[in-house]
Amino acid sequence: MAIKHEIRDNEIFVFGSNKAGKHGLGTALTARMKYGAEMGQGFGLQGQSLAIPVKDEQLKLLPLEEIKTYVDLFIDFAKTNFDKRFFVTPVGTALGEYHAQDIAPLFKGVSDNCRLPPEWEEILKAE
Known about the structure:
The chain is α/β, with parallel strands linked by helices and 127 residues long.
């Protein structure tokens, strides 16, 4: 999936990762090439990007409950960094193999400084 948004100085590119921090494909590669994601760091703030693991070290899909743990940490981080805007990519739904209906509800309660994919916004409004 092509991301049609350029990150500005006060924005953070939020992408799906794996616990090993192998940022080799999809939005993880974009994060590494353009926004400072570091190889070997599978979670958290890295340059102008923030990784949320959706796969383990062997690149196997994590259970939704485990992904939710990382999403909750991200939501708390975003709420305490209101001076920044977070551009959330469709974490876990492209190479991650989950559907938007699976992942979007994990982001319920996200703060106003987070921009979710439009499809996720629609799913959350319908709940």
